[in-house]
Design a protein that fits this description.
By secondary structure, the chain is an alpha/beta fold. The protein has one domain: L-arginine/glycine Amidinotransferase, Chain A (5-stranded Propeller). It is 36% helix and 10% strand. It has a three-stranded mixed beta sheet, covered by helices on one side. A two-stranded parallel ribbon has the order 1-2. A hairpin with a 2-residue loop joins strand 5 and strand 6. It is globular.
């Protein structure tokens, strides 16, 4: 499978490449008070969670090869170095959505890519001990952020606000990272976050589709 070749026509086919997210430091900052709001019912011990995930990812790598197990943080980091205009747009969208002042945009734009990737994922700026954003603990469920149907990719749209930053990051990665360049150039990416193409219903209901909502029941559909 080449880097730009993507094709999924079955729920039970052989897994050849996968995107995963290692539990990040943001998960450790979730309080019981926040659990319902952030859609994360359990208070977990992060080191154990990371250790278990590392075992899981090691098994995947042993069967598929390390080059076929893609980490969201690494994809984000690589994308940040590819497209400066998209990077600035993504930062502006997140800060505006979170209703932070313009100074927050300036801070994020000034950060080295490694630090910026960590802040965008965890919401925490360690240097100043500053919580900029809420954690996004459900980022570990990477099946929800996008769906591959045959040779097309659907960039999903979360139902709950707690997952909106995942949408911003996913859209940026898919738009800016070279691994998806072929799909972009061939028009094989469907972005459900474009209201001009996918407007609300006549009853004012906005579209919401996550990966768990999609099942491929026939290769011809």
């Amino acid at each position: 499978m080449t880097r730009n070749k993507v094709h999924v026509s079955s729920e039970i086919g052989t897994l050849k490449r996968v995107i995963i997210h290692r539990p990040d430091e943001g998960i450790a900052r979730i309080s019981p008070r926040q659990s319902e709001e952030l859609l994360f019912d359990d208070i977990v011990y992060l080191p154990n969670m990371q250790e278990e995930h590392d075992v899981f990812s090691a098994v995947l790598r042993s069967f598929m090869g390390s080059e076929n197990v893609l980490e969201t943080r690494q994809l984000l980091l690589e994308a940040l170095g590819e497209d400066e205009a998209s990077k600035q747009e993504m930062i502006d969208m997140i800060v505006d959505y979170e209703e932070h002042p313009t100074s927050c945009k300036s801070l994020l734009h000034s950060l080295p890519e490694e630090e910026l990737a960590d802040v965008l994922i965890t919401g925490y700026y360690a240097k100043d001990d500053y919580i900029l954003f809420d954690p996004i603990p459900n980022f570990i469920f990477t099946r929800d952020i996008a769906v591959t149907v045959n040779d097309h990719m659907i960039v999903t749209k979360a139902a709950k606000e707690a997952r909106f930053r995942e949408n911003f990051l996913t859209r940026f990665i898919i738009w800016a990272h070279p691994i998806f360049r072929g799909m972009r150039e061939e028009g094989r990416i469907i972005n459900l976050n474009k209201p001009d193409i996918f407007p609300p219903s006549k009853r004012g209901e906005v579209i919401s589709v996550e990966g768990g909502d999609v099942m491929i029941i026939n290769k011809d559909y």
